[in-house]
Amino acid sequence: MNTNFSRFRLRSVAAVVASALTATAAWAVEPFTVRDIRVEGLQRVEAGTIFASLPLRVGDTYSDDRGSAAIRALFDLGLFKDVRIDVSGNVLVVIVEERPTIADVDFVGTKEFEKTALQKALREVGLADGRPYDKALADRAEQELKRQYVSKSLYNAEVITTVTPIERNRVNLTFTVTEGDSARIREVRVVGNKAFSESTLLDLFDQDSGGFMSWYTKSNQYSRAKLSADLETLRSYYLTRGYLEFRIDSTQVAISPDRQDLAVTVNITEGEKFVVSGIKLNGNYLGRDDEFKSLVTIKPGEAYNGEDVTSTTKAFTDYFGTFGYAFARVQAQTEVDRPNNRVALTIQAEPSRRVYVRRVNIGGNNRTRDEVLRREFRQYEASWYDGDKIKLSRDRLDRLGFFTEVNVDTMEIPGTPDQVDLTVTVAEKPTGSLQLGAGFSSAEKVSFNFGITQENVFGSGNYLGLQLNTSSYNKTISVTATDPYFTSDGISRTFSLYHTTTRPYYSADGDYALKHQGASVSFGVPFGEIDTVFFGGGIERYQFDPGSTGTFNATTGQFVSTSPQAYRDYFGCTTQNALIQDCGRASVWGIPLTVGWARDDRDSALVPTRGKVQRANLEVGVGGDMKYVKTSYQYQQFFPLNKQYTLSINGEVGLGKAFGSDTVNDVALANKGFPIFKNFYAGGLGSIRGFEQNSLGPRDAITGAALGGTKKAVFNLELSTPFPGAGNDRTLRLYTFFDVGNVFAERQLGTTDVQWKAQQKVRASAGLGISWISPLGPLRLAYAIPVRQQKEVADPNNAFVPLVQKDRIQSLQFQIGTSF
Length: 820
Known about the structure:
By secondary structure, the protein is α+β, with helices and mostly antiparallel strands. It folds into six domains: 9-98, Ubiquitin-like (UB roll) (Roll); 106-178, Ubiquitin-like (UB roll); 184-269, membrane protein fhac (Ubiquitin-like (UB roll), Roll), CATH 3.10.20.310; 275-350, membrane protein fhac (Ubiquitin-like (UB roll), Roll); 356-426, Roll (Ubiquitin-like (UB roll)); 432-816, Porin (Beta Barrel), CATH 2.40.160. 16% of the residues lie in helices and 43% in strands. The protein is built from 14 helices and 43 strands. It has a 16-stranded antiparallel beta barrel. Helix 1 packs antiparallel against helix 3. The protein is globular and about 130 Å long.
């Protein structure tokens, strides 16, 4: 071998093979001092990347072992599919062949998963645009995709990976999927049950053999995760009824030969039913034994209840957490007396170490800004861990209504036993909504209104709403903007600007109108965590145009206007002739000041199952032409009867009263000065279903206008149940309801006893409804039948105008974005 010009060549597919080849004596090279290093074959990789990875430098001594190490180091970069080292004299030549770069990753035929979600998942493991192509990684991605389809019961899904070379050493990567039909659950069985019927136990499962709503709930699509959840539900059902030694022996899932059907069989052993004989506390309770004893919900003498045991140990753990002991260990130990079917419980507690929160990390908020979440958090960084504050923080985030899921996890910090990190993970939901309302009646046929709102403008947490109504009876445009954190202390500010032109009457011949313009600003001041007090003020103006249409009464020789008498009285209108009606004041204006209070401790703003809401409002007219006081109170509470049924009640009362004097040209108004357009109204969704919206209460004798009243009382009772065929799905529910109430006013001069009694009569209705958390927002459809209504009463003195008008019925109603 010529030492002046020796050439050493190594060709390898893997670093291990290269090492073996260089160990062969036939290829051995005498060590020499490297005078220079050259790199050949680079296209996109920087030469500096090569030099930084090589374990050799100019001036180093080259040997076979160091050559093998250099090849291994370059292969470890994952950028090359071939690496060679040539030796020319004292110059080391590194020749590489780069892996092709991925130009595009695409999916074909994926209906079950979103393409963007799949691309994001592959990007996280290194398979993405601009990355070197790795066949092993692509194969793993293909297998993982198949596994995901199996988890969706698509056992026949096929995935084919296509690699298409293109110019400049690039490739397009395409995953072509043939999903096939998902396997359906043909049968679910529970074997070994004695205390409870099989049908009772199967009703607990979210998975079943399907029904007519399976296309929506997908309850007959097998899922291992859902089955595990169902088994936990089954176990909990027995443990809460005294079956302490209940166990699930096995779960068998049989797949048909064509892989289209599944049969699930759950084998159980119930065991005996046990009664709690006693309970005692053992361990370190920080000298607060009596406080911990008050948290015990286990009841001696009653059947063993696993939920009571779990809730007690959780309450203990949470209470330790309020003192900073985040890792307290609380265990319920049992002493079983099988001959007598009794069990004694010992709660063993060890508070462990006290910790404080180092950092709060937030994830999952792709749209909502971090500060929107952090300002709701009551557990601060660098403060002692407090379980109550963490739970309160989670509830406050959930009540924002921006997220479908909120989770808070506690993470230990290695090497720092007295510190923890909190990780907050949220799943966002659309916060913009299109609100639609519709009703059907024989008078107006179909009526509509709509509004557009965004509860989280640009992820800032601010609210912006636009309401628009273009119906023939009510034209409205209003804009509302709310900044929930106008100050850093959590004081909110709301601006409202509105203009309405209203004909809240049912005479198509009238050309009268009531116009209302105004602006207001209000501030919400938090008092505690669930109480908020609101203060506000504004300026508003009402204009009344009595119109020029009407009828001429030949008997009296007078012109009868089609505008309601109560409105003409308030504005001091008199009829001059058939075309001219003069009013003492064409408009009134006022300065209303408002104060309100709200308390909300519901477990969810979207689908509440427990908790209550209270609201109280006071409005006082202190300036201008209107001087009055108007107050209202609402109470709403939800009671969870069990996992499937929720009972809710809602009550509202209101009272309005004028004060001072109100005159036009020194003549007192007939209605004592209370602005009639400030009256309360009832009827329709959100009030008493089955009656047209805002149609109840006193009405004008001639036009039939709903005038409202200065007093209001409404009560609603509602039972929410699973929708037939939808199982335990909470986004689609069936509810039954009973509504009762009305609005009332002072008895007017000229009102007969029959009319007065009809006005004071309480209305009631009952019916069925559907609630659905739709993509546009919560939708509620109601079909109501009035069970107490007013029939028409004829006037013996006037065959053309009834003495008492009948109620306006609207049995079918729906609205998006309403409650009750």
